[in-house]
Design a protein that fits this description.
Helices cover 39% and strands 17% of the residues. It is of the alpha/beta class. The strands form 3 sheets. A 7-stranded parallel beta sheet has the order 3-2-1-4-5-6-10, with helices on both faces. A 3-stranded mixed beta sheet has the order 7-9-11. Helix 5 packs parallel to helix 6 (154-173). The structure holds nicotinamide-adenine-dinucleotide (NAD). Nicotinamide-adenine-dinucleotide (NAD) is lined by residues 7-8, 10-14, 34-37, 39-40, 62-64, 84-88, 103, 107, 126, 128, 159, 182, 184-185, 191.
């Protein structure tokens, strides 16, 4: 039996991970530490079974609160920490960069320090492909685990800084860390500010889908359940101190995502509208995920052709989940007040 502390377990990926872990590890216990910011939603875990609830605890709190984190680790005799908690929305980071540095960098450092003091068996940090910057649309390259960092936005730079802090705690204090960088996730329980739930919920309300003007920019997509299985594989077989990429190789442009969603819902493409790019908007990310496939035998299991329609229908069937969140999604894409002009890349 292991005890996991999952930070940010009420957000999109964290809540999918809590559910995934309780389902597949029937003797393990999970403690979820989440501040419940606008992105944290108790409804994401409302479907935990009665049996799950006997092995699940929730603590509302801030990962920057070192005393609190240390207390939780000691009181619950935590074996493993998985650090999802973050400010995660690139567009919001353009408007309030400081919040990103506070939580993503100082918060991560506080959790690491608590792990160091309590001698925790593993600290796994959840990072992003975005720390590497972007690629040309016609580039034949992909990011490898040893690609130099080149973050271009406040969100990316906060995640990049956190990664450096994580590695420094391994080198300096021998905290047993692992890191994973993942590509763009989609699936259930994603806050409707991110592109797939934003486009889907707009389409369901007959509101135009706001595509950035550079709509050929593309992302590599992974279903959230494959992100969870990748972290599970690293916790079970990964080497301490190592970094692993979790990607699918499946790239889709903003235009293809919008068309795919409209097609699933049988709605006209005239619902697409074009807005100003976010300042510093990256053109393309692509991870080389051959290391984890080769060394740990991980592979994604959900194809985009199956995962996108299933996800769109999940939101279509659950207006009671996303409708209360719309008033909290306060970033209006394309209206970059208080932000510098877009670079035009
Ligand atoms: P999310 O915004 O949906 O959830 C973040 C959660 O963290 C929320 O529940 C929020 O309440 C909580 N939180 C925020 N600040 C906190 C604090 N100071 N203390 C405690 N809890 C706090 O984000 P997500 O999309 O689920 O992303 C989770 C992690 O995965 C992040 O670290 C993100 O950088 C990383 N990631 C996300 C993607 C993606 O496509 N969504 C891709 C790669 C990596």
């Amino acid at each position: 039996m292991r005890r996991l502390l999952v930070t940010g377990g009420s957000g999109f990926i964290g809540s999918n991970f809590v559910q995934y872990w309780l389902d597949r590890h029937p003797t393990d216990e999970v403690i979820n530490l989440d501040l419940l910011t606008y992105a944290g939603n108790p409804a994401n875990l409302a479907n935990l079974s009665a049996e799950h609830l006997t092995r699940y605890r929730f603590v509302r709190g801030d990962i920057r609160n070192l005393e609190l984190v240390e207390h939780i680790l000691g009181e619950h005799k935590v074996d493993v920490v998985v650090n999802f908690a973050a400010e995660s929305h690139n567009s919001r980071a353009v408007l309030d960069p400081e919040a990103f540095l506070r939580t993503n960098v100082l918060g991560t450092q506080a959790v690491l320090e608590a792990c160091r003091r309590q001698g925790i068996g593993r600290f796994h940090h959840v990072s992003t492909c975005e720390v590497y910057g972007d690629l040309d649309l016609d580039s034949s390259e992909s990011f490898r685990e040893d690609t130099p960092y080149r973050p271009r936005t406040p969100y990316n730079s906060s995640k990049a800084a956190a990664d450096h802090v994580v590695r420094s705690y391994f080198e300096t204090f021998h905290v047993p860390i692992t890191l994973s960088m993942c590509t763009n996730n989609y699936g259930p329980y994603q806050f409707p500010e991110k592109i797939i739930p934003l486009f889907t919920t707009n389409a369901l309300q007959n509101i135009p889908l706001p595509l950035y003007r550079h709509s050929q920019n593309r992302r590599e997509w992974i279903h959230v359940v494959d992100h969870c299985s990748g972290i599970e594989r690293i916790l079970e077989a990964g080497t301490v101190g190592e970094t692993y990429h979790l990607g699918t190789g499946v790239e889709k442009s903003v235009e293809q995502i919008a068309d795919g969603i409209l097609d699933v819902l049988n709605l006209p493409r005239s619902l697409k509208t074009y807005v100003e790019d976010r300042p510093g908007h990256d053109r393309r990310y692509l991870l080389d995920s051959s290391k984890i496939r080769r060394e740990l035998g991980w592979a994604p299991s959900v194809t985009f052709e199956a995962g996108l329609p299933e996800t769109v229908r999940w939101y279509q069937d659950r207006p009671e989940w996303w409708q209360p969140l719309l008033s909290k999604a306060d970033v209006k894409e394309g209206r970059w007040v208080n932000a510098p002009a877009a670079t035009g890349r």
